[in-house]
Specification:
Layout lengths: L2 H19 L7 H7 L7 H6 L2 H30 L4 H18 L6 H11 L9 H21 L5 H27 L8 H17 L12
Helix pairs in contact: 1-6, 4-5, 4-7, 5-7, 5-8, 5-9, 6-8, 7-8, 8-9
Length: about 220
């Protein structure tokens, strides 16, 4: 890896950490450069040009591997003729859990992805299929499986459940990553915890629809 590539990687790592900790709009390019060990205040602009280009490059760099892994898992499910809700939730969850468990660098990967889940990424042009196509596909399949298995759930309730599932998974893994970063003990071994998280997400999706709250007063 040449010097320029290493410097870009250090800047992306620093941006990931700072964006994971705070709203992306609250982090300055100068702060990112300093966190990356760059003495030149214009280092980030030199390597990325603008803030929007840096943020986009970070999303593409971090989300593309998750996207590829999700598509791989979906292809395996197709080849095996499997499409149940648990398997689809696993295809959503497992890439991020694997990246945390097997990654070759300490980072804020899950916390950054959770920030993305909270904020979204309103880029123009939008992020490409090579970056977010997998999450769109697996989410659409989860919605279809939920509609087939729980036909009484209204479309609006399904959409709400999907959002809750995404937040449950990313927030839990972000919390686990923070605990690991601090060398804190987990309540369960990592693989057991992620298996339990998968079951919790399926249970959330399949829970009976809530009855309307009774009206108070006349």
């Amino acid at each position: 890896m040449d010097v320029k590539t290493r410097t870009r990687a250090r800047i992306l790592d620093a941006a990931e950490r700072l964006f994971a900790e705070r709203d992306t709009a609250q982090v300055s390019l100068r702060e990112i450069g300093a966190a990356a060990g760059q003495r030149n205040n214009s280092a980030v602009q030199y390597h990325f040009g603008t803030r929007d280009v840096l943020v986009r490059a970070l999303y593409e760099d971090r989300l593309a591997p998750l996207n590829a892994r999700r598509l791989e898992l979906l292809a395996t499910l197709d080849a095996e003729g499997v499409g149940d809700l648990g398997a689809l939730v696993d295809a959503y969850l497992r890439p991020l859990a694997e990246a945390m468990r097997d990654g070759d660098r300490a980072g804020h990967y899950a916390r950054f992805v959770h920030r993305y889940t909270l904020e979204g990424a309103p880029f123009s042009p939008p992020l490409g299929e090579d970056v977010v196509g997998g999450i769109r596909e697996v989410t659409a399949r989860i919605d279809a499986a939920l509609a087939a298995g729980e036909p009484a759930l209204p479309a609006g309730t399904r959409a709400s459940r999907l959002r809750l599932m995404q937040l449950l998974i990313t927030a839990t893994l972000a919390d686990v990553e923070g605990r690991l970063d601090e060398a804190s003990e987990l309540p369960l071994p990592f693989d057991e915890l992620t298996a339990d998280l998968r079951q919790a997400a399926v249970g959330l999706l399949c829970a009976p629809a809530a009855s309307p709250a009774p009206r108070v007063g006349g």
